[in-house]
Amino acid sequence: MMSMPRCLRICGGNDSLRGTDAMPATTMIDAIRDALDVALTDDPTVTVFGQDVGYFGGVFRCTAGLQKKHGIDRCFDTPISELGIVGVAIGMAAYGRKPVVEIQFADYMYPAYDQIVSEAARLRYRTAGEFTCPIVIRMPTGGGIFGAQTHSQSPEALFTHVTGLKVVMPSNPIDAKGLLLSAIDDPDPVIFLEPKRLYNGPFDGHHDRPVSPWRTHPMGEAPLGRYLVPLGQAAIRRKGAALTVLAYGTMVHVALAAVEETAIDAEVIDLRTLLPLDLETIVASVRKTGRCVVVHEATLTSGFGAELAALVQAECFWHLHAPVERVAGWDTPYPHTNEWDYFPGPARVAAACRRVLEVQ
Amino acid sequence: MAARKVPDLPNVSKDDLLKYYREMLLIRRFEEKAGQLYGMGLIGGFCHLYIGQEAVVVGLEAAAEEGDKRITSYRDHGHMLACGMDPKGVMAELTGREGGYSRGKGGSMHMFSKEKHFYGGHGIVGAQVPLGAGLAFSDKYKGNDRVTFTYFGDGAANQGQVYETYNMAELWDLPVIFVIENNQYAMGTSVKRSTKSPTLWQRGAAYGIEGEAVDGMDVLAVKEAGQRAVAHCRAGKGPYILEVMTYRYRGHSMSDPAKYRSREEVQKMREERDAIEHVRDLLMQGGHATDEDLKAIDKEIKAIVNEAAEFAKDSPEPDPAELWTDIYAKVAPQTA
Ligand SMILES: Cc1ncc(C[n+]2csc(CCOP(=O)(O)OP(=O)(O)O)c2C)c(N)n1
Ligand SMILES: [Mg+2]
């Protein structure tokens, strides 16, 4: 274990600037930067800001080069003031601009939560549609970097619980770019969660093995120019007949690894967008397979998996051969040393699949 | 080597100078070792080194007395060593082992010691500031004259909760010293790119809080300012702000491309303003110590640090059952 790199490079990394102009993006970081570049180029109202985002180019380098190319008025640094960042973005959005802001880690969004819930999510309703809030809030999310309790969280359920928000979590570079461009075009506030373990490769939960580069993955190379992946459309990553696995973000790759390694003929669905949810694709699959496992990295209790399980039983009750199982992070803070005991890796996903298949 | 200014010989005892020298050197060597262990993959995740800023905590601890409290951010190793926590326990938390102060639950950013009145170790920028006021409030209830050193960075000084805390601390006359460690950068963003009111201690005036700026590369100046702040608080006059001007030599955390400042800038600080070299000069020029004496101290410190590193390597990883401890008073493990 000790010989493996124990974290990804934060506050560092490559500055190849792939994705901007010349070559197609071949990491999730490049794909996100490319989407921002396209948006800044196409729409003069788009404004990108956040901590270390401008001059420095972002701690994960997602905005590297953008200030230089688009100017300091379009891409700039903020003080360490999450509440202020989001609040100011909401004001801008209500009056004609399209802010795309970065919260450096999802774990830092709590000071901004009041603004997100009380203002961003409610502005359209409160003003009877007179004012709207077309903002995107990008946040690196998830663990697996020994970041412990303050740098590893997956807070998606804190957003899906809030009516008025949309919530997106891509699992690969092609989707990341297309979804981000859709999010920026969207007339409502979008929380855009970026699984940081996927920035540099399709991490599948096997933390004791090197991660293959995105370059070698079919979804790894984001084409140049503008294209959209619509919000509210799931993708079937693996066709199968025996059971349906619902996953998003990093867990898509974990689920794929789990079923490949155990030769379970599962259908693996990548939700891509949690709100709005592509219930149609989910229901069609579960009605076909009759079995369902829901996977996420966030803690179990009141996680988004609870919502998925409830919807599946309501929509597919007479087709189910087994209770829906959830595989999730344990109900603990994200541990430091013991993080792989917390992380719902391929072994736990495979075990759940087997249990669900055993029910006659 | 560029010339450091030859310091005037201040009115300070040999013993005190040697003590500061030792304490600062311990922090520096400890941090260098931590950097090495990180490079070897023995420390994972985040690790914010304190190298360059040693005089801040050593000077302020020299102004503190038993029972005074301290609370800080994630850049916390120096604070822990300066308040007397065991280097072995600190290093073992860095390596995430059972023998660490948080038994491997916290890592570099999250450590605590009731015995030494060290209240952490906080990973969220600014979050410790209101907590510091709360600690001070408890002392006020107790009716003693203890004070709380509440440390935060120049970047943290832009968080809203700092100003909510200022207002309350002054309103309730809390014995809290707000120590702004101004090392001129918040990660990759310099002070001038994050505020137009760069004299951070003066922001307290809006709330009626007194304060001052102090040269954080001069341990004696820090100690004196600390004594003024402590006297203010112990006299029941409410909070005080110290903006300590310092500099971090290393990257923000462990992988920092350092594109936001020049190599020359760092080099200049090291050569002209280094706090440890400053005390070394005072010791030598005052005739308090010879090269040999200082080499002996260096050796002593190296032994302490090596012992800490060995302990941190040998201490076992926490048992997986630790996943289920300290979440609530009582908790049953989940399965499946
Ligand atoms: C609420 C919050 N926002 C952002 C971060 C990320 N972050 C960690 S340290 C840091 C810079 C803080 O700078 P400063 O307060 O000057 O302290 P220094 O690191 O210089 O000691 C940032 C932005 C965080 N940990 N918490
Ligand atoms: Mg700083």
From TrEMBL, chain B:
- Which GO BP terms, alphabetically? pyruvate decarboxylation to acetyl-CoA
Quote the EC number.
1.2.4.1
Drop me one GO molecular function for this one.
pyruvate dehydrogenase (acetyl-transferring) activity
Task: List the catalytic activities from the record.
Answer: N(6)-[(R)-lipoyl]-L-lysyl-[protein] + pyruvate + H(+) = N(6)-[(R)-S(8)-acetyldihydrolipoyl]-L-lysyl-[protein] + CO2
Q: Which cofactor does it need?
A: thiamine diphosphate
Keywords for the protein's UniProt record, in alphabetical order:
Oxidoreductase, Pyruvate, Thiamine pyrophosphate
Matching InterPro entries: DH_E1, PDH_E1_Alpha_Subunit, Pyrv_DH_E1_asu_subgrp-y, THDP-binding
Residue intervals of the Dehydrogenase E1 component domain: 23-320
Please describe the quaternary structure of this protein. Heterodimer of an alpha and a beta chain.
Function summary: The pyruvate dehydrogenase complex catalyzes the overall conversion of pyruvate to acetyl-CoA and CO(2). It contains multiple copies of three enzymatic components: pyruvate dehydrogenase (E1), dihydrolipoamide acetyltransferase (E2) and lipoamide dehydrogenase (E3).
UniProt protein name:
Pyruvate dehydrogenase E1 component subunit alpha
